[in-house]
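Re: beginner question about structure tokens

> Can someone show what the tokenized structure looks like for a real chain? I only ever see the sequence side.

Sure, here's an example I had lying around. Input first:
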Amino acid sequence: MVRRQQRQTARRTRDTAGGPGPSLGPSRREQGKARTRSALIRAAERLIADGRTDASILQITEAADVGLGSFYNHFDSREALFAAAVDEALETVGKLLDQLGARLDDPAEVFAQSFRLTGRLLRREPALMHVALSEGPALMQTGKGLAPRARRDIEAGIRSGRFSFQHAELALAITVGAVLGLAELLRQSPRSDGDADTDVTAAALLTMLGVPRAEADEISRRPLPKGLTPALTRGSPAFGGRTSRYERSGVEGQ
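And the corresponding structure tokens:
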């Protein structure tokens, strides 16, 4: 009798609290679906990096080591999968730039640092950046990753009076073009000093935006945050607690 009353009391307490207690996390089924989706995204990224965007859905699922029927539980088409892979790569880079620039106040330095870090990732994380830049000039229109953050920083510089160049969209187009051009230059010249080329380009962009040349050069030579590639570890709060497949050890963004 006492035990029955105790069980009834415990049940009433749970009901009053609004449920059976704290969530124990995703179910096994949800975890399995998340692993399958992640495997498909990883496979799509490898295919994009290899230039195989014409791969069939069967080839994609084989590369992901998942069943063919699993594909349509996550994506309506091959194009939807590739778009999701590009979006994820863009957001990976974008969140990294936000994380490393969080303590900067000067819009000119924020803009320059983001560009310089992007340039360094071209050499340090070529697979990631190949996927992130695979849209080419259409990057200007995406709502994720590099372009919206560059637009934000350009507009902040214009509002604050730091940049005298008033055409934000044109400045964004020039910046996107500079990133794409730099990526191709570094691809064609694997032995060139990519960091120096990136910094010279960053200074030129700042000068175009209205920063005096001497100051633009000085800003583009400032020390960068250390640990560029380890910062891609998604175990950090910026990446939702997940581990990045892009991580490499012992590389710093200097």
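Each token stands for a local structural state, so reading them left to right follows the chain. Residues 228 and 253 are 5 Å apart (CA to CA).
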